[in-house]
Write a structure and sequence with these properties.
It contains 14 helices and nine strands. It is of the alpha/beta class.
């Protein structure tokens, strides 16, 4: 999996990843959904002495508790209805390598007890089994929940929490590392729409959005914009609605500030009747229309005016439009 970053925050994080990878201690990776916790986990494996051995990953929230237990620990034939043959669990499959448990906060309390015993002893019973299975597995876990708060509320075992968090990493949200946005956007563009480049307005809007869904949201936005793009360019109008709305508002705010500064400047050459203001307003309207492929309703929405007002201004500024 590719890791793309340019921020000092992520450089510092990857330095800790390389250090932590040299040990066999359990690592808890925290961070908001979509920040790239699995990529960090894979980097830990990549730099470790187990890098050439098996890697196994599972989401603890993807399966019901009953299935999760058999998935982790396996079962013997006849252990339950439908168990017509024995099956290895993920711990056995990962023996000698790395097991990554994503969404660990979703694990049932009963399974938390069993997981703790395995981590402490390296041994467990398959479902329906009478002989212990012994494994040597490096455990990595990830969560977007506040496990310390869950411990205080009795929803997560304190002893397991401390066992999993022998070492801890926190992946910062994308909004706190804006330097990574442009690098990631370009990476996803090259991967998903290599024949199209970003327009200046589109790239500006991408950089200004705070990406509450983090890297996953950014990737999906670029895929969507690439599918909408034409003539070899990803335009502002091709971006998802919420990004265009925020980018348009910012564009309008900046333009209004520029207008205000120009008018209040001592050496302003504003003509009687607001010639400078009209020229700047005309430029803003035309630029917005260009970015929306002359879709007047979209342009009006971005500018924060009604379609009727935009139409009236176009008749003034562009009588032939």
């Amino acid at each position: 999996m590719d890791a793309v970053f340019a921020s000092q925050e992520m450089l510092n994080l990857m330095d800790r990843v390389r250090r932590f990878a040299l040990t066999d201690a359990s690592v808890l990776i925290c961070g908001e959904s979509g920040t790239g916790k699995e990529i960090v986990a894979r980097a830990l494996c990549h730099y470790s002495k187990r890098s050439n051995l098996v890697w196994v990953d599972v989401s603890c929230g993807a399966l019901p508790d009953t299935l999760m237990e058999s998935e982790l620990f396996g079962f013997h034939k006849g252990a339950f209805s439908g168990a017509d043959q024995a099956k290895e669990g993920l711990f056995e499959i990962a023996d000698g390598g790395t097991l990554f448990l994503d969404e660990i906060g979703e694990l049932d309390l009963r399974l938390q007890v069993k997981l703790l015993r395995v981590l402490d002893s390296g041994e467990y019973y398959r479902l329906g089994g009478t002989k212990k299975v012994k494994v040597n597995v490096r455990i990595l876990t990830a969560t977007n929940q506040d496990l310390a708060k869950m411990v205080a509320e009795g929803r997560f075992r304190k002893d397991l929490y401390h066992r999993l968090a022998q070492l801890r990493l926190t992946v910062p949200p994308l909004r706190s590392r804006p330097e990574d946005v442009g690098a990631l956007a370009e990476f996803f563009r090259q991967r998903h729409c290599p024949d199209a480049v970003f327009s200046t307005a589109a790239l500006h809007a991408i950089r200004q959005w705070d990406w509450p869904g983090n890297v996953r949201e950014l990737r999906n936005a670029i895929i969507s914009a690439g599918a909408m793009s034409m003539d070899g360019q990803v335009q502002f109008a091709d971006l998802p609605d919420e990004i265009r709305a925020a980018g348009g508002s910012l564009m309008l705010d900046n333009s209004l500030r520029n207008l205000s500064s120009a008018v209040s400047a001592p050496d302003s050459e504003a003509e009687p009747g607001g010639g400078l203001l009209e020229a700047m307003e005309r430029s803003l309207i035309l630029r917005t229309l260009t970015e929306t492929n002359w879709h007047q309703e979209k342009a009006a929405s971005i500018l924060g005016i009604s379609s009727r007002t935009l139409s009236r201004k176009l008749k003034v500024y562009m009588p032939s439009a």
